[in-house]
Amino acid sequence: MDSPIADFLRSYAASDTARFHMPGHKGHGPLGCEALDITEIQGADSLYEADGIIAQSEQNAAALFGTGRTLYSTEGSSQCIRAMLYLALQNRPKGTAPVILAARNVHKAFVYAAALLDFTPVWLWPEGEESLLQCPVSAPQVAAALDAMEAPPAAVYLTSPDYLGGMADIEAIAKVCHSHGTVLLVDNAHGAYLRFLRPSRHPMDQGADLCCDSAHKTLPVLTGGAYLHISKNAPAAFAEKARQAMALFGSTSPSYLTLASLDLCNQTLAGDYPARLAEMEERLTQLRRRLAERGWQVEDTDPLRLTLAAPAGETGLTLARRLRESAMECEYADEEHLVLMLTPDNRPEELERLEQALGFAPAPPKEKAPLPQARGEQAMPLRQALFAPQETVAANQALSRVCGAPTVSCPPAVPIAVSGERIGPEALTLFEHYGVERVDVVKE
Question: Which of 105, 199, 325, 345 could form an SS bridge with 135, CB 3.0 to 4.6 Å?
Fold first, then answer.
């Protein structure tokens, strides 16, 4: 498979052309990559008006992912989340409402999009008590929620895989959405690689209409590289207006280094990547089995994630510190869990080091009180609250105040309280549990 973006950058760097254009480093600098870092010069195409090398590379990606259209983002899935919500709202059929039915464990980019696009989210909550980062919902639950609505929403929105690795039944939920006259949007930020499993487990192959992938999270792509995927079966307007939607939320100065990494990733995916992925999947399956035999509670996750429940006397945070002492860094840790993300670029000896460092679990996980769900009353519209004058208060002083900007770290960037919600005692419990010390609230 060709790599038109990377080829152009290399050719331009080798040409010794005098650069009387942006960027200011003129192709020289301490990083060593400056010669490949350019702007939209002649022949380099333009991301939001692409009809040259970028368009060619995106067509390669669409062929690899089997989509109707795939567009590049250099600003991560956050840009793609906003764009796909915009597409669903702007092109919703007559009779549908400017509402998005969403599982509650959304990334905060969803909340910001709700404010910018001025739509109303209706939340799907998990049927049982779960981590803040998880919101497993079933197809019957989605069907019941849709049946209860006066009009079909512009879209149903899911996060799958979630931050702990839980995966939704996309195929069943997509069928429910389509039978109810709406579309399914999936934040698949952590699952770009799922397309290259055999069989594929990617949302685009399971019935989703729009989907975003953070390529940089699980594929060999520079940070910020992402995809917006549009299904072959999605409404035609989605593909026709996709470039416009991306431009609405993206910088006019996209990184050509990131674009080149997306471009070169196509060659990797078209080559031996599926075989290497299968090898890593098998290694990780065997590692999970051995850890379970050593007393670890291994959670059910997507294939390239290892999520461990913290044993009694430990927390995910103490486990993370133990790994750090052995020169290993995890993806995420909290009181209950340790999360590690692997790819075919992790070497077998790294898995051996990990297994050795973990050793035997000292005890089974302690039975813990379930965490509450912070179902705060919507005291004012989300958009109004996010743009209202705000002040920052100590989290333990936020009871009964109206949430302004959602105050969460990234990772995991899943809001406890959403803009416009009145903060209740359940939210205070979660603030303390997840170490949130200060909260932005609407000024009274």
Answer: 105
